[in-house]
Specification:
Layout (H helix, E strand, L loop, with lengths): L9 H22 L4 H66 L1
Helix pairs in contact: 1-2
Length: 102
């Protein structure tokens, strides 16, 4: 049996949480004994707060993505240097072996 790691990404968990919060808040407001005007005001306030939270999360994700991209670029440069050194060492070893056999 294959060993699979299944998990949720941070973005998936955040979206699920926000979706549940929106649905729960909407249901609570619809069943609340408030006037229509008051309910609309509460919904608008909640929507505004949710929008601010989503925008803040988007900023965090962009920052995380930028840091990850910089780390990836640094890793690629290091890998390129390692590969170039290995190729140079291989060429040098080949030349030495060729010279030794001649």
């Amino acid at each position: 049996m294959a060993d699979h790691q299944e998990g949720c990404s941070g973005v998936g968990v955040t979206l699920a949480f926000l979706s549940g919060a929106i649905i729960g808040a909407t249901a609570a407001m619809l069943y609340a004994p408030n006037t229509g005007e008051e309910t609309r005001r509460v919904i608008k306030g909640y929507a505004r707060r949710t929008e601010e939270e989503v925008l803040e999360k988007a900023k965090e994700i962009r920052g995380d993505l930028a840091r990850t991209m910089e780390e990836a670029k640094r890793f690629v440069k290091e890998a390129e240097a390692t590969i170039a050194a290995a190729v140079a060492a291989g060429k040098e070893a080949f030349k030495k072996e060729k010279t030794d056999r001649a």
